[in-house]
């Protein structure tokens, strides 16, 4: 049965769509917005939390975007995108959770209030406070990428996708990432991958 992906491309569903493209999985994208769409009974049967994204994989329902991308990579990617050893797998979890805990919220607040929201909805105070929280964690990422091309091991994995998807809006809006040259160079490479380009087409419409 075809994988069904519920969500809006300009949400965390982006990383799920990107993962499906990287893995070459046939899927049906079911546009589901943050408000009305995610509160419909048919969607609540997939994710009772009423949040996107979620998937229906032949009757198996799963929500939380990081869980979804790692599930898809492990099921369909094997050694291609999912690390083979327990140690490398742990590093995948580490960096995926690091992204969610250390940079996601300040990135959303910074980019939203500096670039994305309508001008009358922006708060420069929130943007500045959020931006000030990013140098320390991004310096950690920049140091990690100083002598390597990828997050885990010597090839692209779902760890790269999970972290790069968080930084995508900053990169796309040309936010100043020059303080972290290794991060910028890594994003330039990762977001130019064929799978990323296909997912970006959905998001950048």
UniProtKB/TrEMBL annotation:
GST C-terminal domain: residues covered: 85-205
InterPro entries: Glutathione-S-Trfase_C-like (IPR010987), Glutathione-S-Trfase_C_sf (IPR036282), Glutathione_S-Trfase (IPR040079), Glutathione_S-Trfase_N (IPR004045), GST_C (IPR004046), Thioredoxin-like_sf (IPR036249)
Coiled-coil portions: none
Keywords annotated in UniProt: Oxidoreductase, Transferase
Enzyme class per UniProt: oxidoreductase
Domain GST N-terminal: 1-80
CDD domains: GST_C_8 (cd03207), GST_N_GTT1_like (cd03046)
EC number: 1.8.4.-
Example of a GO MF term: transferase activity
PANTHER family: GLUTATHIONE S-TRANSFERASE GSTA (PTHR44051:SF8), GLUTATHIONE S-TRANSFERASE-RELATED (PTHR44051)
Family statement: Belongs to the GST superfamily.
Name by which UniProt lists this protein: Disulfide-bond oxidoreductase YfcG
Organism field: Usitatibacter rugosus
Lineage: Bacteria, Pseudomonadati, Pseudomonadota, Betaproteobacteria, Nitrosomonadales
């Amino acid at each position: 049965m075809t994988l069904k992906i519920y969500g809006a491309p300009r949400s965390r569903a982006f990383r799920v769509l990107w993962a499906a493209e990287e893995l070459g999985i046939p899927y049906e994208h079911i546009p589901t917005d943050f408000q009305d769409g995610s509160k419909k009974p048919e969607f609540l049967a997939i994710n009772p939390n009423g949040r996107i994204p979620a998937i229906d994989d032949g009757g198996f329902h799963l929500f939380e975007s990081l869980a979804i991308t790692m599930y898809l990579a492990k099921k369909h990617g094997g050694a291609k995108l999912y690390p083979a050893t327990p140690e490398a797998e742990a590093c995948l979890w580490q960096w995926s959770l690091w992204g969610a805990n250390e940079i996601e919220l300040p990135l959303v607040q910074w980019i939203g209030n500096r670039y994305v929201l309508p001008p009358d909805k922006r708060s420069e105070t929130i943007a500045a406070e959020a931006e000030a929280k990013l140098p320390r964690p991004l310096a950690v990422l920049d140091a990690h990428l100083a002598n390597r091309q990828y997050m885990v091991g010597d090839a692209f994995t779902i760890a790269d996708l999970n972290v790069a998807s968080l930084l995508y809006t900053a990169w796309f809006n040309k936010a100043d990432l020059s303080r972290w040259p290794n991060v910028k160079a890594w994003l330039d490479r990762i977001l130019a991958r064929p799978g990323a380009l296909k997912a970006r087409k959905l998001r950048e419409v």
